[in-house]
Amino acid sequence: MPARLPGPCRLDVVRDGVDFLASASHKFLLGSRGMGYLYVRRDLLHRIQPVGPGWKAARKPAESFYGPAMDLSPTASKLDTSQAWFPAMAEKAALSIFSRFGTDALLERNSQLTLRLQDALSAQGLSFQHFPDQNRSTIVSVRVGDTDTVLARFHQANVRAAVRAGNIRLSVHFYNLEEEIDRVAELIGRS
Q1: Helix (H, G, I), strand (E, B) or coil at 168
Q2: Alpha helix locations (H) across 102-138?
Q3: Which one of 2, 45, 103, 113 has the largest count of C-beta atoms within 10 Å of its C-beta?
Q4: Is the pLDDT of residue 151 over 90?
């Protein structure tokens, strides 16, 4: 059965017994749309067949990419597709942030900012769903009376948020400033 993790968190595919893991990179990883990652446990690789293999997916790429049939590699390279060059260049720049600051530091910063947002919302008397630490993500949804009014205030203050099921949906990331978090709570609290 597929599992969905609660936002960004550390995962060890061996320790956690993961068979397959697919992830897009345009959200938490700050990559561009069109890029993603696939992990397949080595002994299950034979169960995956590529839909649109690229020329490097062949057992001997320089000998079989002209067709009509392709002898696929027995390794994970059989899943290689043609590069989406512009998203790939953006991906490299986006992922450099993780090398620069470290994943643990980014995760900790996100956790601190999420807690600060929850505290600021509580100080405004606003209610939202609290989750245990192991289930908490950087997304906080707040029930408000008039979402259009709050979104109009956000627009004026250059704040981006979404509405989901009558809730204002906020998502913090390490680049947010503490004063931005406090300001968002104030803007919602005025409703």
Answers
A1: strand
A2: 103-123
A3: 113
A4: yes
Residue 110 reports pLDDT greater than 50: yes
- Say how far apart CA 160 and CA 170 lie, in whole Å: 8
Written as one letter, the residue type at 134 is Q
Q: Spell out the SS3 assignment of 21-85.
A: EEEECCCCCCCCCCCEEEEECHHHHHHCCCCCCCHHHECCHHHHCCCCCCCECCCHHHHCCCCCH
Phi, psi of 7 (to 5 degrees): 80, -165
Considering just the CA atoms, what is the radius of gyration of the chain in Å? 21
The chain-wide mean pLDDT, for the chain, equals 84
pLDDT (tens digit per residue) in 88-103: 888 888 889 889 999 8
Which domains are present in the chain?
20-101 (no CATH), 103-189 (3.90.1150.10)
Tell me the β-bridge partners of 39. Answer: 21
Distance CA 5, CA 43 (A): 23
User: What is the SS3 assignment for 123?
Assistant: helix
Are 6 and 135 in contact, with CB atoms under 8 Å apart?
yes
